[in-house]
């Protein structure tokens, strides 16, 4: 019996789990097209890298690639020069919202990346703590601590929002 080709193994795995990888990338970049690009880049990196030693670990291995590709994208995007507010107003005199519209997704986006990564992987991707630790190259206790602190920060953010909304 012939062993399946490496690129076929990855392609099959990604096709079976494409919604999860897209959702993970989207949770980082908040843009549909960018999330699709990240998944595509991740597939390309996985096929060309061929660094997986144990095929049973493909799940955490590919999640790690998607997370790192997402973080690389965000780092590159930060290097883009931000235009000052006066210039923006000259080119686009739009209406200013006078209300705050915050939800869990916005609160997640405001978390520091270390906390956001563990929260997204643990609760939105429903991965085990051990898998999150492996994907992010962290100690299990560090992962637990970041989850705890991240949830604490989220709770404070959501309470602040509820308090401001009640005024």
From TrEMBL:
This is RNA polymerase sigma70. Residues 14-79 form the RNA polymerase sigma-70 region domain. It comes from the Bacteria. Keywords: Sigma factor, Transcription, Transcription regulation. GO terms for molecular function: DNA binding; sigma factor activity. SUPFAM superfamilies: Sigma2 domain of RNA polymerase sigma factors, Sigma3 and sigma4 domains of RNA polymerase sigma factors. GO terms for biological process: DNA-templated transcription initiation. Belongs to the sigma-70 factor family. ECF subfamily. Residues 103-152 form the RNA polymerase sigma factor 70 region 4 type domain. It comes from Ureibacillus massiliensis 4400831 = CIP 108448 = CCUG 49529. Pfam families: Sigma70_r2, Sigma70_r4_2.
